[in-house]
């Protein structure tokens, strides 16, 4: 069947636990994905460092179990990169070709209009995310992804997902579940922006993201909430 088509959105799936991945070695300026063929061979660049993959392995097994064969093929095809603070994982106007899994660090998705930045999501350790409309439809993204601190990510190429979804029912089930949950989370995000006031949005953010609050600047938090920094200061003072 291949990858299903879904309306435009970007979102994240979060593990029910958090990890600190201090043992992963960074790869910088790694070339893009090596071509993934049906016989499971990788043609072209292959990373010269073998990375411990227990983190991503456990993510898949917790979220939607895969057979050992398909999991092994998947992990073989991933690449790992480290981005410095303010580096772009994806620039607006480019096509999103990856699912991202954060091993360590923090990133945000956002778009800009009339010199104003609108932040949609923050992504921390143990999260899988993408710009799904661009990823699925292979079209340029309106959103950008940028690292807010030094961030190590494991990348899964769209061709890998396409191939494995065609060949393995368990992978298709995983991906459909991934996109379904991401869609639900995005609908919640849209609803809170339309229906909740700024104080309610702030309180909900604290409840959902208290573990990363100290890692996010007040300016970025205000952009996420859709308010000015002055309004955010007043909310924090009266809370």
What features would you describe in this structure?
The chain has helices at 54-63, 68-77, 132-137, 158-167, 169-195, 198-209, 218-225, 229-238, and strands at residues 10-14, 35-36, 42-43, 79-83, 88-90, 98-104, 107-113, 116-123, 127-131, 144-147, 151-157. It has 239 residues and is an alpha+beta fold. The chain has two domains: 10-195, Jelly Rolls (Sandwich); 196-239, no CATH class. The strands form three sheets. The protein has a five-stranded antiparallel β-sheet. Strand 2 (35-36) and strand 3 (42-43) form a beta hairpin. Helix 4 (158-167) packs across helix 5. The chain is elongated and about 55 Å long.
Brief summary of the model shown:
The protein has helices spanning 54-63, 68-77, 132-137, 158-167, 169-195, 198-209, 218-225, 229-238, and strands at residues 10-14, 35-36, 42-43, 79-83, 88-90, 98-104, 107-113, 116-123, 127-131, 144-147, 151-157. 39% of the residues lie in helices and 23% in strands. The protein has 2 domains: 10-195, Jelly Rolls; 196-239, no CATH class.
Q: Topology of this structure?
A:
Blueprint: E1 10-14, E2 35-36, E3 42-43, H1 54-63, H2 68-77, E4 79-83, E5 88-90, E6 98-104, E7 107-113, E8 116-123, E9 127-131, H3 132-137, E10 144-147, E11 151-157, H4 158-167, H5 169-195, H6 198-209, H7 218-225, H8 229-238
Antiparallel strand pairs: 1-9, 2-3, 4-11, 5-10, 6-9, 6-11, 7-8, 7-10
